[in-house]
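Handout, section B. The chain below has 366 residues.
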Amino acid sequence: MGGQVGASGIYSDGMIRALAQGGGIAAATSFVQGQVQPASLDLRLGTRCWRMRASFLPGRDGHVRERIDAYKLHEIDLTKDAVLETGCVYVAEIAESLSLPPMLSASTNPKSSTGRLDVFTRVICDGAAAFDTIPAGYRGMLYAEISPRTFPVLVRAGSRLSQIRFREGEARISDDALAALHARTRLVDRADALIRDGVVLSVDLAGFGDTGLIGYRGKRHTGLVDVDKVGAYPILDYWEPIHRAREGALILDPNEFYILASKEAVHVPPDHAAEMVPFDAMMGEFRVHYAGFFDPGFGHAAAGGAGARAVLEVRSRDVPFILEDGQVVGRLIYERMMREPDALYGADLRSNYQAQGLKLSKHFIG
């Protein structure tokens, strides 16, 4: 692996390490094990966090610290364990800062485990007019806006809630190129994949296993979840299992959080990366996904991932909404890698969600 793919595209793990060695990524401490992923870098929380009056964007020529000073309620020391409460907005320094070359831009997304905890997280930088978007040539600090929705969470300096992808030039491939790629190596487990501004995904409400489990609804007023603990919390203390209804539908309650899964098994070949994005805002009053990055090797048979589904983090917006089995809920866009990664998602990295079906975040057991 690690071979040449294209002159433009997404940076691989080896390229991310080289970028850091060349000063493009800086931090007070070296990367930790598992921080560099096949096509992304996990971002660590720094030592300071602020409870904010409201979310914000600095705007063109604006500085994040100026907005923090204007709208903060109090400062939180992340060198100690800190509780972030539901319904509150926090902004934390990110340990990694950037000094990007002129041709290199980046985008960010919550980590899979963050999205499955219903922790709304997005990254901002100086001069930002949009969240999760780092312009080419950016030099400066990064900050994470954090807003737990369902469970209060315990965090500290070094906790990893977000991830960043680096890209040169035009990386996204067209629908025609997607169709050709699907013909060569199935991107989803159906020959007649619907390709429309990406590969279309639908929701599975037919049920998994003998029990007909279709998903989970987050409980309210639970205990804390420590974001750095794996397999530490009983599922039923935090989640209500949902089973298949005879009519094959699920009524989404407003302000409730659901974990569901795609009907399609997803495949990301080693020379591509993918991202799940909303299908169409006019398709219904619900939002699917917080965590959208799929690394090279996800669902790849050679990396132990055959049959991997996309897990869907779902919320209804303002009104109850009926979601039906097979309903279109999102789409996968694919981007070229500049080089194949040294390690694929899955067997090479002992990844938490390879070959997943319907799976909660790594924090839960039972």
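Note. The radius of gyration is 20 Å. Compare this with the example in section A.
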